[in-house]
Amino acid sequence: MKFVHVGINVTNLEKSIEFYQKVFGVSPVKVKADYAKFLLESPGLNFTLNVRNEVSGNQVNHFGFQVETAEEITAHKERLEKEGFFARDEMNTTCCYAVQDKFWVTDPDGNEWEFFYTKTDSEVHKIEASACC
After folding, report:
1. Where is the VOC domain (predicted)?
2. Which phi and psi angles does 123 have, rounded to 5°?
3. Alpha carbon 108 to its chain's center
4. CA 43/CA 124 separation, integer angstroms
5. CA–CA separation, 117 vs 34, rounded Å?
6. Rounded distance, CA 107 to CA 34, Å?
7. Architecture of domain 3-121
8. Per-residue pLDDT reduced to its tens digit, 9-51
9. Which region among 52-56, 65-69, 76-80 has the lowest average model confidence (pLDDT)?
10. Residue 55: its pLDDT value, please?
């Protein structure tokens, strides 16, 4: 695995970017009107801010692991399915300004974990018919 991925919900993107730039000591690698992405090499962290109109309770959108190859997606999915976890597929989907192969599993408390491989960047947040975090 290459990066741990954490996505949180925020109501004010500018203030959140300013805060996390100070915390992480780096600028975001991608900023859109409703989204920002920080990529830290050490520790390996892909951290995203996802704008929502209202945020209450738990601010976590989801957790995830970014892998380096499409083959890793298949291997992790098969491994987790053998362990009895249902994996929700989203192969060749456009989400978070990227074309990705991904799948999701959910922990006992309802926290979603995403395993994803980024094929290429996209100019759109998501394709209308596709699911997206």
Report:
1. 2-118
2. -85, -10
3. 20
4. 28
5. 22
6. 27
7. Roll (3.10)
8. 898 999 999 989 988 989 999 999 999 999 999 889 999 999 9
9. 52-56
10. 77
